[in-house]
Amino acid sequence: MTGPGSTLTRAWPDDPTTLAALSEQRSDLLVEHREPEDADPGGTVAEWTQKHGPFRDYRRTLRQDGDQLLETTSYDLRVPWFGWVYRPLVHGRLRRLDARDRSPWWAPSDHLDPRQVLVLGLVAALSMASAFINTLFTQTVNFAADDFGTGDWGIGVGGAIVRAGILIAMPAALLADRIGRRRVIGFVAWAAPIVTAMGALAPSFGLLVATQAIGRPLGLALDFLIAVVAIEEMPRNSRAYAVSVMALASGLGAAVAVIALPLADLGVGAWRLLYGLTLVWLVVAVDAVRRLPETIRFEIPHVVRPPLDRRRFAVIGGIALLANIFVAPASFFQNRYLEDARGFSATTIAAFTLATATPAALGLVIGGRIADARGRRRLIATALPLGTVFVAASFAVGGPVMWGFMTTGAVIGSLAYPAISVYRSEVFPTGNRGRAAGLLTVLALVGGIAGLLAAGGLLDAGWSYGRVMGLLALAQIGVVAIVVTSLPETAHRSLEELNPLDRIAGR
């Protein structure tokens, strides 16, 4: 079995080397506690339970059975929504005799407890919903614009307006710092898919933009609030890992939107079907409202409404703003480029997006581990500009080279994503962590709006996609300059160490 309440039995040769290896306490997926020798007589060599780890229940027993050693491990692992991913990995790891003293590459550096596993699974599921909502307009705008007779400039303006709607999400950020993360997340998890789905009924491009100018910011509010929850709940050496897991889930949610994109080929107005699919994410909202706990850091004493550290905010905000001058238009205009310049259909666009973005999942996992183990700054300064070069170059070429450049850029760029994203919450205290995350999202969108307007105007003026993306990519030079000169290193440091106001208030 590999589900909750699983039991794994393995027979090993009864020799001194194997006995010594089996008798060591595991410290890979969990930290074991060895039970007293007389806990279970009758052939038992040793018995272990969980001292610290992700299992709700765990017991490993080693017995002599004739000329064999019989190792039986029973465990109960419950990962909301993503147990189908982790249970086979855990089962395979528990079968191994080697490497029991170090965490596998796909697991966090710290040993999470069952509560942290619960929180991470739920926020990852909410990341899927948020990503679908935030991706939907970008994926469908080209088809909606064709349906309503809107050009590149109108598309750019529409994208800018939708992004400017983030201002209506700021009350959610402020309320999260006042009344708690859980209650606000519960509201936006319901509201975002309902409002976004109204786009299916829009009679004009302007009204479609209006619905998404509300729905998409609610999705963004959900995104930055669950990031706050993840940062506050994860241990110090696993915060970037949590971001990478959420990013993987986010990619899966966005992939759902991409996979559904061929529905737009069914006929004029068929793009509306994708907006109706948004209501599926209400299932995740129900589960989150039922099971997501309030963060421990919000519940313990902390300074309420502390002043915002202006220098830290300027540093992180500058990175968010400049990075999105390129990232937003590169994402937003990709489908337009593929259709106009390369003659792709909706189905081919979906295939291209999935083929080039799916390998980036590996970069996210590796990037999260590197950021937690070796630090964030050097990783960002190396991976971000290199990934940008390949993505920008993909807009200037066609054929297999285009596919290769985009794939390479996505993989390299994804290495930097967990390191960049984790800063938005970890360098601000509990009392204004939600507000800071919201304001940083605003700045990111300001950068995206600037990039969209510039791209839309230049494309309508006759510039090629390659020239436009090459020009906007220069903004990443500013990002690297800020990272190298001003960004603090936060790896291996607790949130209280990074934010002394929380440490003082908690005494």
Describe this structure in words.
This protein has 507 residues and is α+β, with helices and mostly antiparallel strands. The protein has 2 domains: 6-95; 114-505, MFS general substrate transporter like domains (Growth Hormone, Chain: A, Up-down Bundle), CATH 1.20.1250.20. Helices cover 64% and strands 8% of the residues. The chain contains 22 helices and 5 strands. Strands 1-5-4-3-2 form a 5-stranded antiparallel beta sheet, with helices on one face. Strand 3 (44-52) and strand 4 (57-65) form a beta hairpin. Helix 3 (114-148) runs parallel beside helix 8 (239-259), helix 8 packs across helix 17 and helix 12 (310-332) runs parallel beside helix 18 (433-460). The longest helix has 35 residues, at 114-148. The chain starts with 5 loop residues before the first strand and ends with a helix. The model has no long low-confidence stretch (mean pLDDT 91).
